[in-house]
């Protein structure tokens, strides 16, 4: 079981960093004069580019190293953009992109390096939209989850559909996460409505967890991400949960999650802003392939094909994070001559998806008497649009400072905050997501259950669930 308090280590001063700083000292203007070049950055060039961006924009960036290296010892690095880059600030949602999970799918790696450079340069230039985005959001960019696979694919010429896909141990990292879909589908079958934060229910693993997977799991469990995407290649579509079939590997089965509407919103937020993803007139990648453009450029994962142990569903079922998977093009190893064109095709979509971490509602959960923040309070939601009550059976929780974030599409909702030892609080809210704006704020103060109301005449404590029922408060 993963410790939720596991620490993510800050970037150490490794040899490549020392060499970079020494050369920079010899030419103090070298960083400012350096212009991003579109090419396939090898692993050391990738690290250097991240450091260069940090040196250009030190006040809004930080770099950290995940707790595990790759199988072959390469560091797994993340660059962060925020006006508070080294720590979570309450009410500012956390967003992440992870690329190059399959080592031979390389476009996402180059897009994230360019995105880092773009965010830095546009912030410095005073671009109002970028300044607002970085001021209101904490953005994590991980260009490569599988640098070993990238090296193998590149050494082979980048032309093989499989070489470099796996990590150095020959494991597909997107099949290596704990299979939380199995748990949630079993819960459904036995009328157990537990549909969130399922890591405590993992009782066995189907295969050993790889170091790259473990590192990202610890990242997910340590940082309160709200939304994210992982970047792949081989087709052109935005894919959303569930990725796994409920009833085995059933071809074409649509596996609906409780947040199906919200996931469609997220997927369309990318597809609609991409140059071609949602174009119904584009050609499919290969003969016999589905033309996802005719479906708006999006697909439910299991309807396409079933994946067990994927990172996308793990995020949704282990944490508060809503993740989608982006297939960025027909070619896995994109030609170097195509990289700049692909950046221009994806730039607006990459930025627009980050903004979606601000849809829905957010706020604080506090103790009504002491006003201290309450972590781990459950936020339960019922969609009451048009007077029809439809519970969304997937709770999120407040985090360490009592702040919570609940992604929702436009509509009317009944929202309940609850925590053991407190009376629940329920409010109604109308969500109207405005373009590139912050979520609506809805705060909760919970009344603690104190003596004598929570003890019976014999001095025995009444069960919390019984108190809630006696108070005639809604429980979903």
TrEMBL record:
Subcellular location: Secreted
Family of this protein: Belongs to the peptidase M14 family.
Any Pfam family matching the protein: Peptidase_M14
Cofactors: Zn(2+)
UniProt source species: Sipha flava
GO biological process: peptide metabolic process; protein processing
GO molecular function: metallocarboxypeptidase activity; zinc ion binding
A single cellular component GO annotation: extracellular space
Keyword GTP-binding: no
Span of the signal peptide: 1-25
Active-site residues (renumbered): 327
The name this protein goes by in its record: Carboxypeptidase E-like
Encoding gene, per UniProt annotation: LOC112684665
Ranges of residues in domain Peptidase M14: 39-357
PROSITE patterns: CARBOXYPEPT_ZN_1 (PS00132), CARBOXYPEPT_ZN_2 (PS00133), PEPTIDASE_M14 (PS52035)
InterPro entries on file: CarboxyPept-like_regulatory, CARBOXYPEPT_ZN_1, CARBOXYPEPT_ZN_2, Peptidase_M14, Peptidase_M14_domain
Keyword Metal-binding set for record: yes
Source organism superkingdom: Eukaryota
Keywords on record: Carboxypeptidase, Glycoprotein, Hydrolase, Metal-binding, Metalloprotease, Protease, Secreted, Signal, Zinc
């Amino acid at each position: 079981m993963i410790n939720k308090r596991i620490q993510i280590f800050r970037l150490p001063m490794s040899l490549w960093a020392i060499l970079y700083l020494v050369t920079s000292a010899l030419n103090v203007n070298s960083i400012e004069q350096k212009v991003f070049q579109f090419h396939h950055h090898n692993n050391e060039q990738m690290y250097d580019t991240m450091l260069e961006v940090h040196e250009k924009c030190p006040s809004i960036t930080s770099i950290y190293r995940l707790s595990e290296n790759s199988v072959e010892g390469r560091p797994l690095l993340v660059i962060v953009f925020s006006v508070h880059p080294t720590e979570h600030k309450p009410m500012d949602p956390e967003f992440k992109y992870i690329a190059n999970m399959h080592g031979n799918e390389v476009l996402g790696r180059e897009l994230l390096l360019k995105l880092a450079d773009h965010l830095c340069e546009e912030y410095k230039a005073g671009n109002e939209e970028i300044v607002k985005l970085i001021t209101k959001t904490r953005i994590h960019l991980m260009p490569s989850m599988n640098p070993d696979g990238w090296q193998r694919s590149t050494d082979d010429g980048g032309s093989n559909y499989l070489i470099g896909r796996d990590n150095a141990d020959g494991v597909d990292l997107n099949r290596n996460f704990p299979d939380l879909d199995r748990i949630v589908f079993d819960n459904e079958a036995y009328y157990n409505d537990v549909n969130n934060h399922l890591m405590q229910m993992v009782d066995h693993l189907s295969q050993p967890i790889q170091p790259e997977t473990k590192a990202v799991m610890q990242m997910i469990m340590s940082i309160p991400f709200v939304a994210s995407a992982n970047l792949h290649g081989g087709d052109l579509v935005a894919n959303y949960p569930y990725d796994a079939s409920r009833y085995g590997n059933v071809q074409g089965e649509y596996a609906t999650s409780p947040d199906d509407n919200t996931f469609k919103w997220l997927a369309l937020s990318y597809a609609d802003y991409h140059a071609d993803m949602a174009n119904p007139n584009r050609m499919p990648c290969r003969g016999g392939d589905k033309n996802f453009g005719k479906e708006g450029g999006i697909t439910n994962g299991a309807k396409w094909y079933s994946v067990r142990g994927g990172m996308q569903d793990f995020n949704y079922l282990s944490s508060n994070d809503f993740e989608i998977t982006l297939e960025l093009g027909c070619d896995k190893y994109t030609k170097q001559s195509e990289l700049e064109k692909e950046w221009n095709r994806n730039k607006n979509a990459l930025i627009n998806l980050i903004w979606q971490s601000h849809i829905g509602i957010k706020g604080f959960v506090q103790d009504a008497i002491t006003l201290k923040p309450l972590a781990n309070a459950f936020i339960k939601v019922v969609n009451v649009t048009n007077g029809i009550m439809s519970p969304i059976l997937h709770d999120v929780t407040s985090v360490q400072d009592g702040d919570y974030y609940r992604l929702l599409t436009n509509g009317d909702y009944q929202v309940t905050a609850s925590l053991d030892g407190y009376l629940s609080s329920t409010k109604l809210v109308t969500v109207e997501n405005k373009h590139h704006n912050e979520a609506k704020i809805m705060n909760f103060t919970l009344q603690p259950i104190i003596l004598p109301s929570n003890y019976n005449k014999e001095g025995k404590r009444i069960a919390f669930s019984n108190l809630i029922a006696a108070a005639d408060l809604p429980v979903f």
